[in-house]
Structure formats: C-alpha cells, structure tokens
Amino acid sequence: MAAATSLFTHWRIGETETGSFPSLPYFHSSPNYTQRRRTYRSHFVRATSYESSPESLKVDVQELKQKYQKWSWKGLYNINYVVFPPLDQSSSSSSGCHNLVLVHGFGASIPHWRWNLLPLASINYTVYAIDLLGFGASDKPTDFRYTMESWAELILDFTDQVVQNPVILVGNSIGSLACVLAAATDSNSLVRGLVLLNCAGGMNNKAIVDDWRIKLLLPLLWLIDFLLSQRSIASRIFNRVKQSDNLKNILSSVYANKDAVDDELVEIIKGPAEDEGALDAFISIIAGPPGPNPVQLMPQISIPVLVLWGDQDTLTPLDGPVGKYFTAIPSQLPNVTLTVLEGVGHCPHDDRPELVHEKLLPWLATLLQS
After folding, report:
1. Where would one find coiled-coil regions in this protein (predicted)?
2. What single string gives the DSSP state of each residue in 141-183?
3. pLDDT digit string, tens, across residues 233-278
4. Within 13 Å of residue 21, how many CA atoms lie on the same side as its CB?
C-alpha cells in the first residue's frame, strides 16, 4: 500500500519517498483452491488486461483469512502469516523449491496480495505473506516504538524461524524499504533476492531532507508531528481517514487503474484499522523517525534485485529524489534491474497485476535455474 503519509493525501504536504513448511490441508484439498489451481494454468497466460483477468485467478479473501497462522515473535507478539505451497507439487522435489516472502506497505495486509499469490505459487515457489507488526491481523501493541529497523528484524527472524530456508523478499512501498534494510543487515545469507514495487524513501516524509521540497515543508511536518502527539487530535484525524468514502478517495489518488479500487480493497484497508492499537501504530509511524533510506542502503546489497515502478505514482514519483535514484541505479549497480510500468500507480501488484506478473514471473524463474 501507500507509504505512511498517503493518509494525508488531501493535505498534499509533499512527496513520500518514502525448507519445509507446515502441513496445509486447506491449500491442498479445498475444492475451490484446487479449481483455481487448474484455472490458473489454463487462463493466466491469456489474461492480458486487468479487466479480462478471470476472477478465479484471485484468492478469495474470506477463505484466505480462515487459514491464517500465527508465529510468536520474541515470545511477545503474534505475527500473522499465510503459506501457499507450489501449485505443481510433483516438480518441486526434482527442480528444487524456492521461497518468497511478501511484505505489504503502509495500511495494507496479506489480502493486498490477492491477485499475486496463485501466480507466484505457479512457478514452483513456496509463497509466504506476512502482516507486519502493527498491521493486518498481527498484534498492534500500544507501547511499541515502530521503526524500519524493527520491521527489518522481524522479516529476518521470520525467515530464520518459520521459513528456515533462504528467501526472495517482495515488498511494496515501506514494505519494500523494510526488505531492503533486511537484506542490507542480513548476516546469515537468508535473503537471496529482492523485488521492490515502488520502494518508499523512508517511514514518513521526513526521510529525504536533501530534497528542496521537503526542506521547505519541514516546519509543517514537525507541526503535524506535534498535533499527532495530542491523542485527541490524532484520534479525530484517524477516525476521519478510515471512513470508507475517504479511504476510497485516498486509494483512487494512488491507483492509476481506478477499477481496481473496489469495495473489497477498501475493506482490506479499513478492517484492521478498527483494531485496538491501530491508532497507536498510526501515530508512531507518522510521527516517528524516518529511518534509513534506500539511497544509503542499496550500495550495500549485491544480491539480484528487480525494481518495478509505476510511472503514475503520486507518492514516490519518478521525478522525485528516490524515483530518480532508482532510475539511474542500474548503471551504477549491475545486480539491479529496473522496469518502469506505464499507466500504473503506487501499488503495481494490485493496480495492474498482469503487468507485474509479466516482468516478475520470468525474473523469478531464472533464479530457480541459478
């Protein structure tokens, strides 16, 4: 989803640059899931536009939620996740099964990958998707100080303790940045590849202070931090933002494909925002430290990286400091591949999933052969 400051879209305050798996009888035996497996193989290649993509390619969100699993992080926090084993079970033992971990952006959760789980499982990957602490069905502790560093640590611990095998991380927005930080601080070679979908520049708008636009707006940003420190004010802002009509307007401003902004998407964002602790996470993220930015982190990474960037992104635009950096990065870092997706917004995987799959699936398939 959109980076943290997207919730202030209507304020227009500036640019956000911001081995084995458990037994899963549902995914192997559910008639609906089995049918979607068959349908995927016969239809996906022919799905050339969002409108023509058959509904059966999308995971049913309610079925997905029924099969959530929990992992205890540090013995303190319950982290929600789900696993999709490879669709072709017969080939996994001979050619090897690799692992993906999908990491959502600000305000989103596992169901935001509704169009991607089956296609990714179709190419012999075991696909994990997690809800970061503070989002989705994961715990939302009221006394936790949310930082990019804590999310990166969570991702690495999840990989080590749950996946128990090397992974390729796939992230959107601040989820991308958390993946970059995880890869940069990975001392155990757990991360073997990165896929970044419109990577954020920081946890909030204070990250890219060398951009003249952000410099001009810093006093306003600090004022917003002060206002959010007043819980009554923050609560009113948050309650207004999470109203369905307002959420739909915000989502429409960051999606290029307006048809993708359906009622289900609005509920994916709205539902977890009603949980206890959601307000505290909102305040901590918006008013907290921005953390490291990708300009600092990317030179530390030597693993293969695929960057997919929607050219209609209003939050991290191509002509912004982070967009410009990623546009130039392939000439500086040979391990990085960049593809600009035309007519796509800040959340490419849900905005125009077929364009993402067209570039992502072949890239992942080549890693299976390496």
Report:
1. none
2. -TT----HHHHHHHHHHHIIIII-S-EEEEEEEHHHHHHHHHH
3. 889 889 999 999 999 999 999 999 999 999 999 999 999 999 999 9
4. 28
Domain count, the chain: 1
Cβ atoms of 171 and 196 within 8 Å: the answer is yes
Residue 46: pLDDT band with limits 50, 70, 90:
very low
| pLDDT greater than 50 at residue 330 | yes
DSSP string for 260-327: G--HHHHHHHHHHHTSTTHHHHHHHHHHS-----HHHHGGG--S-EEEEEETT-SSS-TTSHHHHHHH
Q: Virtual CA dihedral for 199, 200, 202, 205, nearest 10 degrees? A: 160
**What percentage of the chain has pLDDT greater than the value 70?**
75
Residue 106 and residue 286: Cα distance in Å, rounded? 10
Residue 17 — pLDDT band, cuts 50, 70, 90? Answer: very low
> Helix-strand-coil percent breakdown of the chain, rounded to 5?
50, 15, 35
φ, ψ of residue 197 to 5 degrees: the values are -105, 100
Q: What percent of the chain has pLDDT over 90?
A: 66
Contact between 183 and 169 under an 8 Å Cβ cutoff? The reply is: yes
What pLDDT score does 232 carry? 85
Which range of residues forms the domain containing residue 103?
Answer: 4-369
Closest residue by Cα to residue 343 from 356, 353, 352: 352
CATH of the domain at 166: 3.40.50.1820
